[in-house]
């Protein structure tokens, strides 16, 4: 591996030549079933013909013109996101952490506009992940990501994920918002009771706080509904999207209600690349597929059957996999042995997965997988478990 790259990743020594739906294929022709999806990004798999066509068409027209001009494809994507969510307005950027940054700025500006500039603190949760900027690592409060980067950005207080009592006690006169992932991804596919999410809405209403959901990983169809908040029958005031939104093209988005969005006027926030025509062509192509009436029901069907197979796997191999977590196709298997070992063994047998906190292996297949592909993945998970069984005999 080249020393010309900064050493910020513990990369696997594996590179690919091309992709085909849920498969990544090496130069040697080895096929890997991709249940990593570039960390929940390639929601429609690789080389999806509709996405490829949309990108190629736009690439031949023009790529970029900046937000100094209208970008009709962006207006269209925003209107579609608005039509299918709680939100009234959208701001496009290039990544998750930029959506987080925009959300945090919007929260402060909203209370400043209300004449309450002293309300600027945000309550977040232990185990959270919101990105790698100085503000985002302070928000998540994870020592692993903060070490060496002091002084830390002020304004965030963490409470235990899933604990409403602790959260209520953390609220002060300076609290502006509660910012959480409805399901924690990096933290280990930690899935709270839907009652907790409803409770968050209630607490925000009671104390006049903004509810901000980070759906960067759990949004865009991953849980079986377009957005995870729909599962709880409530809505946030502000939401961040990224990962699956561009199907592999970098797009982030900040969504908010009219009342909150009104705090951003010309000059308050901006981006050079965000929402450019290439990105918006990809985002609209993703929406074309996801909004097809058969799409989400199929995600639900395949996720139910995958879940059943994984529950069965854990019952048969509790010495290797101790627990299934998650919702839809945002799934986690908790390892009874180190997840790094399991991930390497799965990769050696042709299944790509991603690690997460609490010794979890994330299973993030593209949302287009078939029952047969889900079964193939479970076959590999099973063969790794059996290899451990033989090793123990
Ligand atoms: C990946 C992720 C982010 C950060 O997104 P980037 O595009 O890497 O900046 C933020 N929040 C959640 C929940 C994520 O999964």
The tally of beta strands, per DSSP, is 15
- Share of helix among residues? 25-40%
Order of strands, widest sheet: 4-10-9-8-7-5-6
Name the ligand types.
pyridoxal-5'-phosphate
Distance between the termini: 37 Å
CATH class of the largest domain: Alpha Beta
Helix-strand string: EEEHHHEHEHHEHEHEEEHHHEEHEEEH
Alpha-beta classification: alpha/beta
Assigned CATH superfamily of the largest domain: Type I PLP-dependent aspartate aminotransferase-like (Major domain)
Please count the helical segments.
13
By CATH, the topology of the largest domain is: Aspartate Aminotransferase, domain 2
What is the total number of structural domains?
2
Q: Indicate the radius of gyration in whole angstroms.
A: 21 Å
What characteristic shape results from the CA principal axes? globular
Q: What is the level-2 CATH architecture name of the largest domain?
A: 3-Layer(aba) Sandwich
Strand content bin: 15-25%
Largest sheet: 7 strands, mixed
Parts with pLDDT < 50 across at least 5 consecutive residues: none
Overall mean pLDDT score?
A: 97
């Amino acid at each position: 591996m080249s020393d010309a790259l900064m050493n910020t990743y513990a990369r696997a020594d594996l590179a690919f030549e091309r992709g085909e739906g849920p498969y990544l294929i090496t130069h040697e022709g080895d096929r890997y079933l991709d249940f990593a999806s570039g960390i929940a990004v390639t929601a429609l798999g690789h080389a999806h013909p509709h996405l490829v066509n949309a990108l190629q068409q736009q690439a031949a027209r023009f790529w970029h013109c900046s937000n100094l001009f209208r970008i009709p494809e962006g207006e269209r994507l925003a209107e579609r996101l608005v039509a299918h969510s709680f939100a009234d307005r959208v701001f496009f950027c290039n990544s998750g952490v930029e959506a987080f940054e925009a959300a945090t700025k919007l929260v402060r500006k909203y209370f400043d506009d209300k004449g309450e500039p002293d309300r600027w603190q945000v309550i977040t949760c232990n185990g959270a992940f919101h990105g790698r900027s100085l503000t985002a690592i302070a928000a998540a409060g994870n020592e692993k990501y903060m070490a060496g980067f002091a002084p830390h950005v002020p304004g965030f207080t963490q409470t235990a994920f899933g604990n409403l009592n602790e959260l209520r006690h953390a609220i002060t006169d300076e609290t502006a918002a509660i910012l959480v992932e409805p399901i924690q991804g990096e933290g280990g596919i930690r899935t709270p009771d839907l009652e907790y999410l409803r409770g968050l809405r209630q607490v925000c209403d009671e104390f006049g706080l903004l509810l901000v959901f980070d759906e960067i990983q759990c949004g865009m169809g991953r849980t079986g509904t377009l957005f995870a908040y729909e599962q709880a029958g409530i809505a946030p005031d502000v939401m961040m999207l990224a990962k699956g939104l561009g199907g592999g093209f970098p797009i982030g988005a900040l969504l908010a209600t009219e009342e909150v969005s009104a705090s951003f006027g010309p000059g308050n926030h901006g981006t050079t690349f965000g929402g450019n025509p290439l990105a918006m062509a990809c985002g609209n192509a993703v929406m074309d597929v996801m909004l097809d009436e058969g799409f989400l029901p199929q995600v639900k069907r395949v996720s139910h059957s995958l879940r059943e197979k994984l529950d069965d796997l854990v019952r048969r191999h509790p010495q290797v996999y101790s627990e299934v977590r998650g919702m839809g196709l945002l799934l986690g298997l908790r390892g009874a042995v180190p997840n790094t070992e399991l991930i390497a063994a799965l990769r050696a047998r042709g299944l790509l997965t991603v690690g997460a906190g609490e010794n979890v292996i994330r299973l993030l297949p593209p949302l287009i997988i078939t029952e047969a592909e889900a079964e193939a993945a479970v076959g590999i998970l099973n063969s790794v478990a059996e290899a451990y069984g033989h090793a123990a005999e």
